[in-house]
Amino acid sequence: MLTRRALITRGSAAGAGVVFLWPRPAEAEAEAAKPVLATTKSIPVGGGKIVQGKYVITQPRKGVYKCFSAKCTHQGCTVASVSRGTINCPCHGSKFSASTGAVVNGPAKKPLAGKKIKVSKGKIRLA
Hints:
By secondary structure, the protein is α+β, with helices and mostly antiparallel strands. The protein has a single domain, classed as Rieske Iron-sulfur Protein, CATH 2.102.10. The protein contains two helices and ten strands. The strands form three sheets. It has a four-stranded antiparallel beta sheet, with no helix packed on it. The longest helix has 16 residues.
């Protein structure tokens, strides 16, 4: 037979487990609602990927992901590729660092705009 004290103690312990089953806080839900831009597996080390014609996501070093605007700062063309450590614009030959977005080769004079991202569970989202 359970004593009143044992029943209360067991009930409290069971109730504590239920707390973890409540819905996630609004902040976590909002983050999960942001669309996935890419998976980490789809971004090669030393390379990158153009996403939705708006973003370029790179992985300059294993496990380090960067995101920039895919709009070239020279005349607004969309960059087309990432290779050999640079993000490349097909219109006039501008090249940008895949690590920092800085201009490596003109005619562009301004770096690509950086975008904040969040990498979680193999998924890359805007922060």
